[in-house]
Amino acid sequence: MAGMNLSVYLLRRLKTLGVDHVFGIPGDYVLPFFDALIASDVEHVAACNELNAGYAADGYARLKGLGAVAVTYGPGAFSLVNAVAGAYAERVPVVVICGGPRREAYSEQPYLHHILPGNYAASVRLFADITVGARRLDDPSRAPAEIDELLTLAMSERRPVYLEIPVNLQLQEVGPQPLASAEMLPADQTAAPAVVQAVAARMLAADRCVVLVGHEVRAMGLEAQVLALIDKTALPVASVFSGKAEFLEQHPRCIGIYLGLGSPPEVREFVEGADVVVWLGAVPSDFNKGASPTAPTDEQSVVIYDWQLTNAGATMTDVSLAGIVSGLHAVLPANHWSKLKAPLHVFAHKRTEPYEPVPDNKLTNQRLYDRLVHFIADDDMVVADGGPIVNLAYAQFPARARLLMSSYWASIGTGTGLALGACFAASSEQRVIAILGDGSFQMSAQELSTLIRYGKACIVVVINNCGYTLERVIHDGPFNDIAAWQYHRLPEAFGGAPGLEVRTEGELEAALASADAHTGPGPLLIEVHLDAWDVPEVFLTIGGKMGK
Ligand SMILES: Cc1ncc(C[n+]2csc(CCOP(=O)(O)OP(=O)(O)O)c2C)c(N)n1
Ligand SMILES: [Mg+2]
Predict the structure, then answer these.
(1) DSSP helix/strand/coil, 535
(2) How far is CA 485 from the centre of its chain?
(3) Span 264-298, pLDDT tens digits
(4) Which end of the chain is flanked by fewer CB atoms within 10 Å, N or C?
(5) Which of 385, 390, 392, 412 to mutate to test the pocket of ligand 1 (most atoms within 8 A of CB)?
(6) HSE of 255 in the Cβ direction (CA atoms, 13 Å)?
């Protein structure tokens, strides 16, 4: 290991942890790192701006377990803030590599570009709030250990970390240090047996018990364990909005998705009328309770989330989700709930419902998703942004399809970047299908050119409904209108990829046939026109409540 420099060390560690691509944009404070990146076996992927590079690293990390983004100081790093905050909120391990000024400058404090006047600590401080570790690496002899510590933290907490590396240290030798092992830690199993027993006893005493699954289950890699728990016990289970658990929607005990007032009536009645509601890796948040005045109360609920367990209002810390899931699996009797009658697979859009196109009919929101649910197949990676996130909540997913979206942090504009990252994480057989609202797409549309540049055969569906429909249903005004773009013509302007326009059911069939046949290189964009107010009835109900 003699002669290894800091950047090479970091890149080797990333590579061992499965990171084959680093997204990002250079600048003078990070150029030595970029030289090392280009010379390494990790590929650099350029995005049009740092925010989108951050979203791409997020999409990549959701699929590969770790992602990385490299940027320059100040404007580069600060542009990343929303993407990193989202990764923190949604538990996605993204490594931020930020090149900083020369090490001596931190004490001498000269006026330099990209530095807030007199504030050389600003970046580390800013990222401290939105990562599980934000550090400046200013001692090459300690850097390998610090890098390993931060990477381990990112992997075990499933949250971002921030590494600031002074420009004159990026190629400094780190000494003849062996590569320490910063392997992905197994999910922490801690959950005191007494805690598990208390939850199990409460569940067993209830007439009706239901499990709600949210975004932490996926983030912590516990999908198989949760399925095994449901298999063994026959507990009725539903997803929630934040981190819709698409992987369990085909399970014989899956009742559907709980969205408060937005739930199908039988799902709402079953969940809200339960004696015990177990929120697994799910938050009883405003979005997940969907403005329902009769949403599960604290007394009704057991909430296991963010290393905390709240049972009937009393909170305990240091309880891991993995520990509770495996503990419950061990102590709950087999088939205990098999006689509990529960609704089954209640989804507005299901593959089992036949769909017959009426070619000349103008396409509607309802019919679009009735059709898309047949298009989405096992092993597809679906990315959603804006209104499509809510519409897809009502679609039943194939067991092996993945849905990527910002549904807890809920930042629109993430979709194109997430899709870009997913394209680099996907295997060559996997399709990436992005279904994006026009308002969301306008925030990051230039990454279409990145998909073209790298020849990624992504299907990008842009729903042109003339603006911010989700906001219209809450509170309308001219602020919800957006510029009228000819979305289907963008691929041509951005470098020559096909773009199609859909207004009728017949045109949708033709476009989806093209999508099925599309192998690239580069994306296929399908612009779908819908009316601005064409939304499911429930959106109007919830929107009205949220507006108040
Ligand atoms: C970064 C960010 N800015 C603003 C919002 C508020 N917001 C939530 S939904 C939405 C409109 C989404 O529009 P679009 O993507 O076109 O989907 P549609 O509602 O039209 O289906 C806005 C502006 C947000 N969530 N995130
Ligand atoms: Mg829209």
Answers:
(1) coil
(2) 27
(3) 999 999 999 999 999 999 999 999 999 999 999 99
(4) C
(5) 412
(6) 26
